[in-house]
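re the bet — no i am not wrong, look at it urself. input seq straight from the record:
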Amino acid sequence: MSGIYARLNKPAHTDEAAAANRARCKNCGAGLLGRYCVDCSQAANVHVPTTSELFHELLEGVLHTDSRLWRTLSSLWFSPGRLTREFVAGRRAAYLPPFRLYLVVSVLFFLLASWSHVPADISRPEHGAAPSMPTLSQCNSISIEALAHYPGVDARIRHGCREVVRDNGASLARVALGTFSKAMFIFLPLVAVVNMLLYWRPRYRYAEHLLFFVHLHAFYFSMAILALGAIAIAHAWPAAAGAADTLQTLLGWAATCYTVLAVRQVFAKSWTGAVLKTLVLAFIYLLVFALTVAGVYAYALLQL
C-alpha cells in the first residue's frame, strides 16, 4: 500500500522532469517512446553507419525481391502504360514516384553518355562522309544581319565557331550534352500540351499527359542506355560492330511498338486509333525535338 500511495502522491514536477530528460528524435525533436519516432517514423537508434552497414543497406535495397525499384522497372519495360494507369488510379505505394524514376534513368543515361564516344569529334564520324567544317577565316567573317544591334552576340558566335574549328567540335558536343538534360524539362511539358490537344473526347487532364510522357521518356532513356552499351562494345571489340548495329535497330523498333502499346493502354483507343494518334504525335514530336536540339546547340555555341 505504501508503494501505491507513493506513486499516487508523486509530485507532478517529477513527471515533467522525466519528460524533459526523455530521449528525443534527432530528425524532428519529438519525444521517443519506443524504437521509432511516433511523429516522423525515424528509428531511435541513429548512428554514423560503418562501411559494412552501408554496403549491406545498398544490397538489401537493390537486390531485395520486393524492392520497388525492380517492380517499377519490370512494369516500365514489359507493361507499356501500366505505370501511368496505376498512378492515376491511386495505386502508387508499390512503385517509385514518376519524376524520381525519370531523374534516376535520365541522369544515368547522361552520365554514361558523357563517358562514352557519343560526344566525339564531329568532324570525323565513324560512318558516312564528314560534314564540312568552317575555316578560321570563315568564322572571323561571320556577321548576322539580324544581330547587327547586338555586336556582343555576334562576337560570341564567332568565338564559338573558332572553338569548334580548334577542337573539331568536341567541346560543342560536350556542352550541348550537358545542356540537353536541362532542355528536357522544357521539352516534356511542351510535348504533353501537344498530346493533350489530340484528345478532346474523352478529355484527359494535363497531368495525365505529362505523367504519360515522363514514363515514356524513362523507357526511352533506358533503351538509350542499352544502345550506349552496344556502342561501347563495338568500340572495344570491332568484330561485334554488326551485332551492335542490329541491336540498335531492334531498340528503335521496340521504342516505336512500345509507344503504340502505351498510347492504347493509357488513352483507351482502338488499335487503329492508337496507331493514327501515334503517327500524328511522332510527326509533331520530331518537329519539336528538332527545334529543341537546334536551340540546345545554339545555346552551347554561345557558351564556348
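see?? The first helix runs from residue 2 to 8. told u. also Confidence is low (pLDDT under 50) at residues 118-130. so pay up
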